[in-house]
Design a protein that fits this description.
- 49% of the residues lie in helices and 3% in strands.
- By secondary structure, it is mostly helical.
- The protein has 4 domains: 74 residues, Orthogonal Bundle (Arc Repressor Mutant, subunit A); 70 residues, no CATH class; 42 residues, no CATH class; 68 residues.
- It has a two-stranded parallel ribbon with strand order 1-2. A two-stranded parallel ribbon has the order 3-4.
- Helix 10 links the parallel strand 3 and strand 4.
- The two termini are 32 Å apart.
- The C terminus is likely disordered.
Length: 295
């Protein structure tokens, strides 16, 4: 909202100037179809391309040098070019354009920079581990000489690297703000001690992180079991067997949730559960990034 208001005041942008998630999704999907891309899951393929476009913009990478992983490299570059041409033709911008335009405005216009610095003398940023370079550079311009930043985040929870988020920005914050104080919140009020311990053991293999000793507030919820399956089919069979064991012990199906990493895996689980006559429902991934899915 802050960045949008900045552009609205500077360039008279309106809400209609921002491409909607549905329009963006439809264009990328149609472009992918026109290039006859092969994919197992449309939503994942389109979302991956959109994420890589966002990464190219947020990290200010030359699209002609970027090596995509969501689709063939040359195809991605062509889709990116067509997407940019569509935005120009329709006089639209996307979220990443908004950030970059704000950065360029603040960097080039001292009057705007000083005005916004005086407007926001204190800045609070949540989920700081998910900030990208373009966002951070813009925030630094707004913070200016006041440098009154209050950031909250957990580098262990950074999951948007594919969109350009950089937890190393959080790790290196004191390089830019050497007087910053660090306050550690070491009590987890959300998870049981078993989950906290298991998660801590796993994440400790990541050596590029803030050292921390997280403890639970005292909740107990049984053991965390780890099962190593040979393949996705074996994994699905294991999930079904565990559900049957739990329901046989008296647990309600409505108290059981199966969370998977991708739609494809979700579909496999769902199909197997239906074949076994186990009542279930699924909510698949949405086009809007603010929606989520689970099984």
């Amino acid at each position: 909202a802050v960045f949008f208001n900045m552009l609205r005041q500077a360039y008279n942008y309106s809400a209609g100037s921002i491409i909607t998630a549905d329009t963006q999704y439809s264009f990328i999907r149609d472009a992918a179809i026109s290039f006859e891309l092969e994919y197992q899951d449309e939503s994942e393929m389109v979302s991956s391309i959109i994420s890589e476009i966002s990464r190219v913009k947020s990290e200010r990478i030359n699209a002609e040098l970027y090596e995509a992983v969501s689709c063939p490299i040359e195809t991605f570059r062509l889709i990116y070019k067509e997407y940019e041409q569509m935005l120009i033709k329709r006089r639209l911008i996307d979220y990443d354009d908004m950030i970059l335009m704000c950065y360029e405005l603040l960097k080039s216009r001292m009057d705007y920079r000083v005005a916004w610095q005086n407007k926001f003398r204190y800045i609070l940023i949540d989920e700081f581990q998910d900030i990208n370079k373009a966002q951070y550079d813009t925030i630094k311009l707004i913070a200016g000489k006041h440098a009154n930043l209050f950031v909250v985040g957990d580098d262990d929870q950074s999951i948007y690297g594919f969109r350009g988020s950089k937890p190393d920005i959080m790790l290196g914050l004191k390089k830019d703000y050497d007087e910053a104080a660090q306050i550690n919140l070491n009590v987890n009020y959300r998870c049981s001690s078993e989950i906290v311990s298991a998660a801590g053991t796993l994440i400790a293999y990541n050596k590029v992180r803030f050292a921390k000793n997280i403890r639970s507030c005292g909740m107990c919820a049984g053991r965390v079991n780890v099962y190593m399956a040979d393949d996705i089919e074996a994994e699905g069979c294991y999930v079904i067997s565990r559900i049957k064991e739990l329901t046989a012990a008296g647990m309600k199906l409505s108290d059981i949730a199966v969370i998977s990493r991708t739609n494809i895996i979700s579909s496999i689980y769902y199909t197997k559960l239906e074949c076994e006559g186990i009542a279930c429902r699924t909510q698949m991934i949405q086009k809007n990034i603010y929606d989520y899915w689970l099984v």
